[in-house]
Amino acid sequence: MAIDLRARFQELQTLDVQNPGAWPDWVRGFTAVLLVIAIIGGSYWFLIKDQYERAARAAQTEQELRASFEKKQRRAAALDDYRARLKVMEREFGQMLRQLPGRAEVANLLNDISQTRSANNLEEEIFEPQNEIIRDFYAELPNRIVVVGDFHDIARFVSDIASLSRIVTVEDITLAPVDGRAPGEDGARDLRMSATAKTYRYLDDEEVSRSSNRGRR
Question: What is the pTM of this model?
Answer without folding.
Answer: 0.49
